[in-house]
Amino acid sequence: MLLKSKTKKLLQLIFIIVIIFSCGIYACSEEKTKNTMRSLKLKDFDFLRREMTYKEVFQKIGMPDVIDESDQDCLTAEYFLRDGSTLQLIFSKQDMMVVIAYLVKSDGETALYPIKRKIPLELKDFEFLKKGIDYWEIVSKVGRADAPYGSSFFGVKYILKDGSTLFLYFGHYGTKLLHARVEKLNGEKIIIVNYDE
Predict the structure, then answer these.
(1) What are the CA-CA distances from residue 130 to residues 65, 133, 169, 173, 194 (Å)?
(2) CB-based contacts of 59: which residues, under 8 Å, 6+ apart?
(3) Phi, psi (deg, nearest 5) at residue 97
(4) What is the pLDDT of residues 94-129, one digit of tens each?
(5) Contact predicate 129/90, CB 8 Å
(6) Residues 141, 116, 34, CA angle at the centre, nearest 5°?
(7) Residue 5: what are its φ and ψ, rounded to 5°?
(8) How far apart are the first and last CA of the chain?
(9) Bridge partners, 77 (sequence order)
(10) Class of CATH domain 42-112
(11) What's the fold here for domain 123-193?
(12) Which of 65, 119, 146, 170 would bridge 154 by S-S if both were Cys, CB 3.0 to 4.6 A apart?
């Protein structure tokens, strides 16, 4: 009889533990659901500007669904969108400003998500360019580039107000400008800084 009583109490205790544990899992999943089921659309991020800090972005749209701080140079914030895609915002840990963004579609395809500038750049803003100028000097004058380009060398591109693209090429190992060209929407290419200069 004593054994049955102890077994019964042990089973009751296990049952209570299972109930408490189940409630904890439910609470965690409820919190995740509240966060990920906000029904965000890509157009909800139209406010995004290049000079915004992560705090400004989070205050405007809410906390991201995922924050990854594992990279020593940047913080990645991911927002799950209603259509199944994910918007990844990359912030520099140096100044905590948004640097670049990617849209990862539900099929896995990744595309650059253009972030607008508070004041759009024009070609005349780059009149200071000359061969050998350092990338960080360029950044100090006009801000970070809109996107990298190339895969085996260091290159960046700026999207200009008229829709044309300015490509800056720094070579394989350095940060000194070697070549710059503009590609207009009609396909015309204009060399701004030539290799031979």
Answers:
(1) 43, 6, 12, 18, 9
(2) none
(3) -100, 150
(4) 889 898 899 999 898 998 888 888 888 999 999 999
(5) no
(6) 130
(7) -65, -45
(8) 99
(9) 67, 89
(10) alpha beta
(11) Beta-lactamase Inhibitory Protein; Chain:B, domain 1 (3.30.1450)
(12) 170
